């Protein structure tokens, strides 16, 4: 086991405001305001220590871009600063001070996420590009991230939240990546995986998909019932998987998941399922 894998297995240890299925319900050509810039992760934001750069004195745009490009090149990934996608629209960061602050915050939140994986993991999952933009929306709904397996990329955005739970944004980074993983492994974002469904307690029923969490100041709270790592996990089996993966990968969330798993056999089985998947795809 490599040191990287060892650290993963120790860590093995995201939610989600703007997620996969959210894109399907909004009417086209109607931009729905980001409701009060609601960050669904703020209520239970972990108090983990993270290293932040100075948001009050952000670096120049070229330096910020270079920082991101170097960090992600270490993982075999390329950064794209413009979004070209039929599924969503986002704006390019500019030299304006407010943009540099926003890009700094985005990098502080998401770059640590990529260090949690062995470098070949992204290649195994056919991820080549990380697209970083601002004011990103899909089908009229603002979103902070989007998997784009058709272009071998993941999209992450700063949407100008006045306050953002930084650990929550890292969790979201993993969560959206998991949607791409699911698509790679099962060729379907919404695969009703019988092996996963069998891990649920009897009488478990999922909701109507992630989209139904939107537009009502949704707050994603932890472990609302047996077998569910979070409230958002209950919205659909695809979100359940992405949530367990995201929480497992993010310091501050991973510890809570591990504690609950000691008392919750269903959740323990789901955590174990995700740990095995991560290890299996890390060679
Ligand atoms: Zn999702």
Key terms:
6-stranded mixed sheet; two-stranded antiparallel sheet; 8 strands; 38% helix; binds zinc ion; Peptidase MA superfamily protein; signal
Provide an overview of this structure:
- The chain has 283 residues and is an alpha/beta fold.
- It has one domain.
- Helix content is 38%, strand content 12%.
- Strands 1, 2, 3, 4, 5 and 6 form a six-stranded mixed β-sheet that branches. A two-stranded antiparallel ribbon has the order 7-8.
- Strand 7 and strand 8 form a beta hairpin.
- It binds zinc ion.
- The site of zinc ion has 8 residues, from helix 5 and helix 7.
- This is Peptidase MA superfamily protein.
- Keywords: Signal.
Topology (SSEs and partners):
Elements: H1 3-11, H2 61-73, E1 78-80, E2 89-91, H3 97-114, H4 119-124, E3 129-138, E4 141-142, E5 145-148, E6 153-158, H5 166-186, H6 194-197, E7 222-225, E8 228-230, H7 237-249, H8 254-261, H9 265-280
Parallel strand pairs: 1-3, 3-6
Antiparallel strand pairs: 2-3, 3-4, 5-6, 7-8
Helix pairs in contact: 2-3, 3-5, 5-7, 7-8, 7-9, 8-9
This protein binds zinc ion.
Zinc ion binds at residues 16, 19-20, 175, 179, 210, 239, 242.
Care to give the gist of this entry?
This protein has 283 residues and is α/β, with parallel strands linked by helices. Helices cover 38% and strands 12% of the residues.
Mean pLDDT: 86
The number of helices is: 9
Q: Any idea how many domains?
A: 1
Task: Please state roughly what percent of the residues sit in beta strands, choosing from under 5%, 5-15%, 15-25%, 25-35%, 35-45% or over 45%.
Answer: 5-15%
- Structural class, from secondary structure content? alpha/beta
Keywords: Signal
Protein name: Peptidase MA superfamily protein
């Amino acid at each position: 086991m490599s040191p990287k894998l060892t650290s993963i297995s120790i860590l093995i240890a995201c939610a989600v405001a703007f997620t996969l299925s959210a894109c399907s319900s909004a009417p086209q050509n109607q931009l729905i305001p980001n409701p009060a810039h609601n960050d669904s992760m703020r209520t239970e934001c972990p108090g983990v220590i993270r290293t932040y750069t100075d948001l009050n004195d952000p670096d120049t745009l070229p330096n910020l871009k270079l920082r991101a490009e170097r960090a992600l090149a270490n993982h075999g990934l390329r950064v794209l600063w413009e979004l070209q996608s039929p599924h969503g629209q986002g704006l390019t960061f500019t030299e304006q001070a407010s943009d540099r602050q926003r890009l700094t915050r985005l990098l502080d939140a998401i770059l640590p996420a990529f260090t949690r994986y062995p470098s070949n993991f992204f290649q195994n999952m056919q991820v080549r590009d990380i697209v970083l933009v601002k004011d990103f929306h899909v089908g009229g709904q603002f979103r902070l991230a989007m998997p784009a397996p058709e272009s071998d990329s993941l999209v992450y955005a700063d949407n100008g939240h006045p306050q953002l739970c930084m650990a929550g944004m890292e969790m979201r980074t993993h969560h959206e990546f998991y949607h791409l993983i699911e698509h790679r492994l099962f060729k379907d974002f919404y695969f009703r995986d019988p092996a996963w469904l069998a891990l649920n307690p009897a009488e478990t029923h999922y909701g109507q998909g992630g989209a139904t969490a939107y537009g009502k100041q949704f707050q994603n709270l932890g472990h609302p019932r047996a077998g569910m790592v979070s409230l958002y996990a209950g919205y659909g089996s695809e979100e359940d998987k992405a949530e367990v993966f995201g929480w497992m990968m993010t310091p501050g969330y991973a510890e809570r998941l591990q504690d609950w798993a000691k008392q919750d056999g269903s959740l323990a089985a789901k955590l174990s399922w995700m740990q095995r998947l991560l290890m299996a795809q890390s060679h």
